[in-house]
Write a structure and sequence with these properties.
246 residues; 6 strands
């Protein structure tokens, strides 16, 4: 019987060491009960549990400080009760790091002010690609991120009347929305979420796309209602760790 050219002969020392190593591995696997949990897995679960407890303490401390504040003789806890009772799953430092730039937040603070008072209808819109449209969601219109956000806003501000419109178009860049913005964003909108990271691409040196994207943002900011604009940096799986990414 001829030996395989890529394998050493059974009599060689290298082959013996390989066979012995495989035999030892099979012996360990056979002796390990199927229900046992590796030590590293137990350590990982313990680390996750400790991180969750630390996150809960951070959020509870933050919420407790907010509840003690008083504005116009009203306690924050009375005005923002549903928000105070919300269970945040992400640690506070992670949430803070997700905010790349906030600016003065004047327009957004005005929207929140009107949501708290609940004296007028607040229009909320979203534009973007398939991620915002609901791709991969179990039920589009219910479990996509914009629908979940809308449900949260309605719980957080029970006095407010909130109108939601999802104007996202799958497989389209910001250049298309730049040309037909009025068709997909309501007149008089108060808050607009914009998501084009995936469809515009991650090439920061593409000046043409950058200028088109900026023109779209300027159009939104210049609308008659002067809406607050929030840029959502939502990326598909693997985009942040693709070849050549930093």
């Amino acid at each position: 019987m001829a030996a395989h050219p890529s394998l050493p002969l059974p009599g060689s020392s290298a082959a013996c060491w390989r066979i012995a190593g495989c035999a030892l591995l099979f012996m360990v696997l056979a002796a390990t009960p199927a229900t046992s949990v590796p030590q590293w897995a137990e350590h990982a679960e313990a680390t996750k549990a400790a991180a969750r407890k630390l996150s809960e303490r951070h959020w509870h401390s933050h919420v407790h400080r907010l509840q003690s504040l008083v504005l116009d003789e009203r306690r924050f806890g009375d005005m923002l009760g549903p928000i105070m009772r919300h269970e945040y799953t992400l640690p506070m430092p992670q949430v803070q790091k997700s905010l790349v730039y906030t600016g003065s937040n004047f327009r957004l603070r005005k929207v929140v002010h009107d949501l708290i008072l609940g004296k007028r209808q607040i229009k909320v819109g979203a534009i973007g690609g398939s991620i915002t449209n609901g791709a991969k969601a179990s039920v589009i219109g219910e479990t996509d991120w914009f629908s979940l956000l809308g449900k949260y806003m309605q719980r957080a501000f029970p006095r407010a009347s909130i109108s939601l419109r999802n104007g996202a178009l799958p497989a389209t860049p910001s250049a298309l929305m730049n040309m037909c913005l009025e068709q997909y964003v309501d007149d008089g909108v108060d808050l607009v979420f914009v998501e084009y990271v995936a469809n515009d691409g991650s090439n920061r040196f593409d000046e043409v796309k950058a200028k088109v994207y900026e023109r779209l943002l300027r159009k939104l900011l210049a609308m008659r209602s002067r809406p607050a604009v929030v840029l959502m940096q939502l990326m598909p799986k693997g985009m942040a760790y693709g070849q050549g990414s930093r």
